[in-house]
Write a structure and sequence with these properties.
About 0% of the residues lie in helices and about 50% in strands. The chain contains no helices and 11 strands.
Length: about 130
Amino acid sequence: QVQLVESGGGLVQAGGSLRLSCAASGRPLSSYTMGWFRQAPGKERAFVAAISKTVDRTYYADSVKGRFAISRDNAKNTVNLQMNSLKFEDTAVYFCAAVNRGAGVLDVSPDRYDYWGQGTQVTVSS
């Protein structure tokens, strides 16, 4: 079992950047497909980005493509989400999640993920 803790959220002006980090304990994150999701008030949890294990394939929601980048740091056992050109509509609680899938496999549905962090708030002021 793996425990996940997100950090790096905060308040930023539109057009600014934030870097979220998801730190793991219990098992190496390199063993998992990792995803970032977000949930705005009154809305369902939505897919943001994912990275597969072994071959590090990535996939992004259309709304963040070209602005966000997901990456792994296996030495630090973290998965990061670099968020640039932030928009007001990016405001949400951001969660990282893990699932044990095959090499190169990506999942975009939150229902497929087994382990979740507690979330970190990102607020973008317009």
